[in-house]
Structures are given as structure tokens and as C-alpha cells.
Write a structure and sequence with these properties.
With about 375 residues, this protein is α/β, with parallel strands linked by helices. It is built from twelve helices and 13 strands. About 45% of the residues are buried.
Length: about 375
């Protein structure tokens, strides 16, 4: 018997990896499953993006190994995207590193900066991968509370009371996943000041800025942020390219170089055609975002009706790709609640508990289901 590494003892299979097997099995049995659990866009990239990858197939360089830092024109497009949308100036040669999806960036950053025993500040609720990666590299998760009473923003008085002497990294993500809280530049200023005071690498996970959000923001907009900040971003949600696996990490040049040391030992460059498609996406004009948000607005209205039909109270201030809703009084377990809906009504939504203990009493709906399917879900009740 070959034994597994001890690090696997403290992590579990990603919730959606295991739960979706159950959902697929129900569908295979003929159950009319409506999947509102996972944020995988069902819409397509623009035609210009599809054309770009098709045309790239004829390029003489298309099938060779690519640079670990990506094509220069891809990094330039990423820099232009940040300049045009956030008024953030970045050096495409030293302050930007393309990624095969921003999720891999969480691992690369953790490997680059965390030693065994280092502490990591992780939002509760928040993206589960922050915890699993922290555990995989032998660091220690330290959770800080986000609550509806505080608009899902950190309580800085509570943060200052923590033992921060071993904290190396702090994860944030605004617009927030799973709640959709917007954040603000005032909040970002406080976070940057906190990171500087305690010499913490502050990382903003920022893939939802352009979904149902009339005021996209970047942590890098804050003066002096580059001293202590990295930001992750992704084309998955913004441009319906989740399966393409294109993301980026941006910010402090020395930190980017450290991440590159890890990344260059993990892959052999991003496929040429995907890079060309990403360039086309990043050069999209405002009409792209407007057209996507018209669709998502209609879906959100219907999804809120569904949530309220279940007796839930919707967090109306939320933006991004999800609807966050508080369960009715008296419901003890979010997971039992969603399992009942799954098996009785064949509708899958995500329990808030998978994002942390502060997610108990909440559920999350993804806006990745066509309007007629959301209406069908409503009709089932």
C-alpha cells in the first residue's frame, strides 16, 4: 500500500468536485436538474475572441512552447485594460504575469511567500481555496470575520486584537465572493494601511468587478499600494472564458518575480491561441460589459424571486455573479436545506457553509442559468 502525503490529511476534496458528482448522477438517472450552484458562465465569449484563436492556429509559432511570462502583446493588453478601466498604470514587463486562471495564482503566491508555520489571514466567509492551499503549503489559516452587520467588510478593531506577528499574507476579494459585497476605495485605503503597518502581503482576488457592478475598482488604485499589494484577476467571468484558463497577477515587481520563479517550474507556457483570444477579449469595448449585464440583470431579478419564494432574505446590495440570501428563521442547517431542494425539486444551490462558518444560515445562487430555467425553478415551488 502506497501511503499518501501527510498534507492530504488536513484538506478535503473541493466541495464542488464531490457534490457535482452527485448532481451528475441524479441527472444521469433522468432527474431534471437545474444547477444554480456553481459560477461557470453559460454564455459564450465574443465572436472576435473565437475568431482570434481560430486565426492563431495558422501562425508558425502556434504550436511551440511559449514564454513563461506570456506574449509581450498579452501583457501589454493587460496593462492597457487596467489603465482604461481602473486608471492604474502597470509596467507590462515587470508588474504583470499572465496565469492559467487566477486559481493557480493562489498556489503560486503561497509557494513563493509562505514557509511552514507562517500565518495567513483568510476571510470567513470566503473562497475555500485560500484555506486548502494554505494547508497544503504547511502554513496556518487565521480566519477573520465578515458579517452582514458590518456589510461583509473586515472589523479592523478585531483584526488589531489578533496576534499578527506571524502573519505573512492576507487574502481579500472585492467584489466579495460569495456575498457580492462591493467594497469601496475607503475600505481599500484602510486595508493597504493595515498591510503596511504590519508588513503583510495583501492580495485582492478580483474576478467579479465587471459583473452587475457600475463602479469597478482595483486595490491597486490606492496610492502606494504596490509596496504591499498583489491583485489577481481573471477572464473567466468577465469574458465568459472560464474553461480557457486565463488570469493574471499584477502589482509589486519584486513579488511578481518571486511568483515567476515558482510558475516557471510548474508549466511550460500558455497555449499561443488562448493568448491571442485573451488579447482580443481584453480589447473589448464598453458595449461588451453592457450586453452581458443586461442578461445578468434579468437573471438576478428572477433569481431573487426564487430566493424569496423559499422564504429567504436576499442581500440586495450584492454585485457579481451570485445572489446571496439568508435562510428563513428556524432552518438549522444550510446543507440539509439545499439537499432537500436538490432531491425534492431537483434544483442545486450552494450552501453558505462551504465558504466558512459565517456562511451558516445562508445559501448562494449562481446567475449562470438561462431565464427560462430560473422561471422553471420558480414554477417547481
Amino acid at each position: 500500500m502506497i501511503t499518501t502525503a501527510k498534507r492530504l490529511d488536513i484538506i478535503e476534496e473541493y466541495y464542488f468536485s464531490s457534490k457535482l458528482r452527485e448532481v451528475r448522477q441524479l441527472a444521469a438517472e433522468g432527474k431534471p436538474i437545474i444547477n444554480m450552484g456553481i459560477g461557470s458562465p453559460d454564455l459564450s465569449p465574443s465572436q472576435s475572441v473565437v475568431d482570434a484563436i481560430q486565426e492563431a492556429m495558422q501562425d508558425v509559432n502556434a504550436h511551440q512552447y511559449q514564454s513563461y511570462q506570456g506574449l509581450p502583446e498579452l501583457r501589454k493588453s493587460m496593462a492597457d485594460f487596467y489603465q482604461n478601466n481602473f486608471n492604474v498604470e502597470l509596467n507590462p514587463n515587470t508588474e504583470i504575469l499572465p496565469l492559467m486562471g487566477s486559481k493557480e495564482g493562489i498556489m503560486h503566491i503561497s509557494l513563493a511567500f509562505l514557509n511552514e508555520g507562517d500565518h495567513v489571514l483568510i476571510p470567513n466567509p470566503g473562497y475555500p481555496t485560500y484555506t486548502s492551499v494554505t494547508n497544503l503549503v504547511g502554513a496556518v489559516p487565521v480566519y477573520y470575520d465578515l458579517t452582514e452587520a458590518n456589510n461583509w467588510e473586515p472589523d479592523f478593531e478585531a483584526l488589531e486584537k489578533l496576534d499578527l506577528s506571524k502573519v505573512k499574507i492576507m487574502w481579500i476579494g472585492y467584489p466579495h465572493m460569495p456575498t457580492g459585497a462591493r467594497g469601496s476605495l475607503a475600505l481599500f485605503e484602510k486595508l493597504v494601511a493595515f498591510a503596511k503597518k504590519h508588513q503583510i502581503l495583501l492580495i485582492n482576488d478580483n474576478p467579479y468587478s465587471f459583473v452587475l457592478n457600475d463602479n469597478p475598482m482595483s486595490l491597486l488604485q490606492i496610492s502606494g499600494a504596490k509596496e504591499v499589494v498583489l491583485e489577481l484577476n481573471s477572464l473567466s467571468k468577465t469574458f465568459n472564458m472560464a474553461g480557457w484558463r486565463v488570469g493574471m497577477v499584477l502589482g509589486n515587481a519584486a513579488c511578481i518575480d518571486a511568483v515567476l520563479k515558482v510558475k516557471s517550474n510548474m508549466d511550460s507556457g500558455m497555449f499561443f491561441g488562448i493568448q491571442k483570444g485573451a488579447i482580443a477579449a481584453l480589447n473589448s469595448d464598453k458595449s461588451w460589459f453592457e450586453s452581458m449585464n443586461e442578461i445578468y440583470k434579468k437573471r438576478r431579478v428572477l433569481t431573487e424571486v426564487l430566493a424569496e419564494k423559499l422564504g429567504c432574505k436576499v442581500y440586495k446590495e450584492g454585485v457579481g455573479l451570485f445572489v446571496w440570501a439568508k435562510l428563513p428563521e428556524g432552518i438549522i442547517s444550510a446543507e440539509a436545506f439545499i439537499d432537500q431542494i436538490l432531491h425534492e425539486k431537483h434544483i442545486f444551490v450552494a450552501p453558505g457553509t462551504i465558504f466558512g462558518s459565517n456562511g451558516e444560515g445562508y445559501i448562494r445562487f449562481a446567475l449562470c442559468v438561462k431565464e427560462e430555467k430560473v422561471q422553471e425553478a420558480i414554477d417547481r415551488f
